[in-house]
Amino acid sequence: AKLESLGAQAQRLPDGMYQITAKGIAAHAAFPEGSESAELKLARILSHSGVLDQEADALMKALCILFGDYYGAGLGVPFEDEVSGKLTHVGGVAAYEQGVFHQNINIRYNVTADYDGMITTINKVLDRYGFVVKRTHNSSPFYMDKQEPIVQKLVEICNMHLGTNLDTFIMGGGTYSRKLKNAVGFGPGIPRAVKRYGTDRGGAHQPDEYVEIEDLKKAFVIYVDALKALDAWVAE
């Protein structure tokens, strides 16, 4: 009963060993609020179990510290700026292979953050817990001022068709707009008060991820008018 209250279950195996299973709630690394890490649940349970040796116990406690928040504090980089808000980070895929623990870390950092300085700090923090960084991949932030005339025009077209008063926003999710000059992400992420499957299914990178057909139809019409506006803007 205690394990279940912590979001996990234990099963006795034929050889007398116990298998502990935890279930999490998936979310996009840029929007981790409301997610639940199955790995973190297991780490917390095992770190209080009293059955681990010193090395394994230190590892579980380290995971609890590193991923105990979403906003970089565990990694020593709790960055935030006015333009893009808070940095987010999550522990992604973890694996234990041939006596070595491997951990992926996914970070969505701010527009104004110093990447090299951030990585230096993270390396120092991870080294403190016995981790060695083997590989990094950087996709630099892309930002266009919302006061740009074409951005304002796109917002105007969107609101006209939806009957809304939406404003631009910045997110940690990457789009192909970063590959083009003078481009912005402009997709059918239409806000909805009610989701078909609640908060733990149907969203970005969650089980049963979906999009409303009606939203795609609206997006098509918006794209047509947006392309006309872009064409007129280029011709000026």
What's the SSE blueprint?
Blueprint: H1 2-5, E1 8-12, E2 18-22, H2 38-47, H3 54-66, E3 80-81, E4 85-86, E5 88-97, E6 100-108, H4 115-128, H5 149-162, H6 213-235
Antiparallel strand pairs: 1-2, 3-4, 5-6
Structure description:
With 236 residues, the protein is of the alpha+beta class. It is built from six helices and six strands; from the N terminus they run H-E-E-H-H-E-E-E-E-H-H-H. Strands 1-2 form a two-stranded antiparallel ribbon. It has a two-stranded antiparallel sheet with strand order 3-4. Strands 5-6 form a two-stranded antiparallel ribbon. Strand 3 (80-81) and strand 4 (85-86) form a beta hairpin. Helix 5 runs antiparallel to helix 6 (213-235). The radius of gyration is 22 Å and the shape is globular. The termini are far apart.
Main attributes?
single chain, 236 residues, alpha+beta, Alpha-Beta Plaits, 2 domains, two-stranded antiparallel ribbon, 6 helices
